[in-house]
Amino acid sequence: MSFDLPTMLSVVGVVLTVVFFVVGYRQTIGARRERTRAANKGIVDALFKRLTLEPAFSLGLTEIEKLRVGGALSASINISDMMKPSDIEALFLTRFFLKVIT
After folding, report:
1. 78 — phi, psi (to 5°)?
2. 72 within 8 A of 78, measured Cβ to Cβ
3. pLDDT tens-place string over residues 45-100
4. d(Cα 64, Cα 42) in Å, to the nearest integer?
């Protein structure tokens, strides 16, 4: 079976297009994951700093939900990509107790 030059160039073009699409798609997904990670960390850091500055500071799950929505909007990500309020609360409490102990 013999391939001529235009057919081989077409096949190479299609293969390169698919490869570049996959690489670009993975970079886009990676950037979204990084924005999600930064937004989640920002919420926990803000809560931790606020508690450090104001020991009487208290925050319910509804306020954490509002912070979560605001973090998702500012990072241009879906709210479903963010941690749940209970997860944020657990991470915050863990960080708080680890800092108090050390």
Report:
1. -75, 145
2. yes
3. 888 888 878 878 787 778 888 888 998 998 889 999 898 888 888 887 888 788 77
4. 12
pTM across the whole model? 0.67
Q: Which two tokens stand for residue 25?
A: 């798609």
Rounded average pLDDT over 14-36: 88
Distance from C-alpha of 95 to C-alpha of 48, rounded to nearest angstrom: 8
Closest CA to 89 of 38, 51, 55: 51
Tokens linked to 8: 């081989």
What are the structure tokens assigned to 38, written together? 């930064």
8 Å CB contact between 40 and 71: yes
Please tell me the distance from the alpha carbon of residue 98 to that of residue 102, in angstroms, as a whole number: 6
Token reading at 10: 């077409």
pLDDT classification of 18: cutoffs 50, 70, 90: very high
